[in-house]
C-alpha cells in the first residue's frame, strides 16, 4: 500500500493523514522524527516489493506460456511417435502371430520327421539283423566253398592223372581202318562232298567232329592228307559273331594260317572255314559260304 508524505502510521499500525491528526505540540514533536525517516524507508521498501512482485509475476507468466508452447509443440510430436509406435506394435504383433503359425507348422513337421526317423531306425535295425544273418551265411558258404575247392582240386588232380594215363593208352592205340593218326587224334578225309553243316553231322555219325587245327604242325599234317589243290571243310566258323572266328569245340583261334587277304566275307555270307591244299608250305585257310559243297576232314 502506497503512502504519501502526509500519511503516517499510528501505534496500532493504521495509516492516517498527518495533517488530520489532532496532536498536541508535545506529541507532534515526539512523532516527527519517525515520520520523516522511517516512513520514507518503509515507502521505498513497499515500492521495491511491489516491483519485484510484478517482475516475478511476469517471469511466472512467461514461464507458464513457455511451458504451454513447449507442451503444445511436443504434443503433436508425441502423438506422431505414439502412432508410429502403435503401428510398429501392430506389425510386430502380426509378425509374432505369423511366427507362431510357422512355429506350429515346423513343430508338426518336426514330429513327422521324428516319426519317420524312428521308423527308419527300426528298418535300419531290421536290416542290420538281416545283414548280420547274411554275413554269417556268407561266412558259412565261404567255408563250404573252401572245402569244395579243396575237393575239386583233389578231383582235378585225380582226373588229370587219369587223363594222362588215358592219353598214353590212346597214343599207343592204333586208329580205325582208313583213319590216319597224328598225336593223340585220328583223322579221315571224306569221300563224299556236302555243305558245312552236313559235314559236321557226318562226323558226328562216326563219333568225331570237323577237324580243329591247333598248330602249324597239325596244319602241315592235314595238308599232306589232301590231293593237290583240294579244298575241304574244317571246324572253323564265325556264325555266332561276324569277324570272330571260333573252333567247333568252343575254343578261340590261337594259330591262324589264313591266305592273303583272307578272311574277306565276300558278299557278307562267308561264315565257314576251309583248308586249301598247297603243294609248297603247309597250305592255308579261306572263308567260304557255308552252303558250298565240298569234302571235309573229321577228327576224333
Automatic annotation (TrEMBL):
CDD domains: CLECT_DC-SIGN_like (cd03590). The keyword Membrane applies. It holds the Pfam family Lectin_C. This is C-type lectin domain-containing protein. One of its GO terms (molecular function) is carbohydrate binding. The chain crosses the membrane at residues 48-70. InterPro entries: C-type_lectin-like, C-type_lectin-like/link_sf, C-type_lectin/snaclec_domain, C-type_lectin_CS, CD209-like_CTLD, CTDL_fold. Keywords: Coiled coil, Disulfide bond, Lectin, Membrane, Transmembrane, Transmembrane helix. Residues 82-123 form a coiled coil. Residues 182-299 form the C-type lectin domain. It comes from the Eukaryota.
Amino acid at each position: 500500500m502506497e503512502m504519501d508524505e502526509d500519511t503516517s502510521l499510528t501505534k496500532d499500525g493504521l495509516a492516517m493523514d498527518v495533517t488530520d491528526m489532532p496532536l498536541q505540540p508535545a506529541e507532534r514533536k515526539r512523532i516527527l522524527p519517525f515520520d520523516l525517516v522511517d516512513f520514507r524507508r518503509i515507502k521505498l521498501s513497499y515500492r521495491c516489493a511491489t516491483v519485484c512482485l510484478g517482475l516475478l509475476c511476469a517471469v511466472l507468466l512467461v514461464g507458464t506460456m513457455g511451458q504451454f508452447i513447449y507442451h503444445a509443440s511436443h504434443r503433436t510430436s508425441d502423438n506422431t511417435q505414439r502412432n508410429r509406435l502403435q503401428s510398429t506394435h501392430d506389425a510386430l504383433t502380426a509378425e509374432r502371430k505369423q511366427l507362431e503359425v510357422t512355429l506350429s507348422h515346423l513343430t508338426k513337421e518336426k514330429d513327422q520327421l521324428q516319426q519317420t526317423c524312428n521308423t527308419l531306425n527300426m528298418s535300419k535295425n531290421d536290416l542290420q539283423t538281416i545283414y548280420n544273418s547274411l554275413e554269417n551265411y556268407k561266412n558259412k558258404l565261404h567255408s563250404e566253398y573252401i572245402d569244395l575247392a579243396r575237393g575239386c582240386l583233389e578231383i582235378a588232380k585225380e582226373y588229370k592223372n587219369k587223363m594222362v594215363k588215358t592219353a598214353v593208352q590212346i597214343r599207343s592205340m592204333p586208329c580205325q581202318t582208313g583213319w590216319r593218326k597224328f598225336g593223340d587224334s585220328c583223322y579221315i578225309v571224306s569221300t563224299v562232298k556236302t555243305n558245312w553243316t552236313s559235314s559236321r553231322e557226318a562226323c558226328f555219325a562216326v563219333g568225331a567232329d570237323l577237324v580243329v587245327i591247333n598248330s602249324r604242325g597239325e596244319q602241315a599234317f592235314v595238308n599232306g592228307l589232301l590231293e593237290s589243290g583240294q579244298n575241304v571243310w574244317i571246324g572253323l566258323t564265325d556264325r555266332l559273331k561276324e569277324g570272330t572266328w571260333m573252333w567247333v569245340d568252343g575254343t578261340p583261334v590261337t594259330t591262324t594260317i589264313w591266305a592273303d587277304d583272307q578272311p574277306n566275307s565276300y558278299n557278307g555270307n562267308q561264315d565257314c572255314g576251309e583248308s586249301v591244299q598247297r603243294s609248297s608250305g603247309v597250305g592255308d585257310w579261306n572263308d567260304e559260304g557255308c552252303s558250298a559243297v565240298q569234302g571235309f576232314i573229321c577228327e576224333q
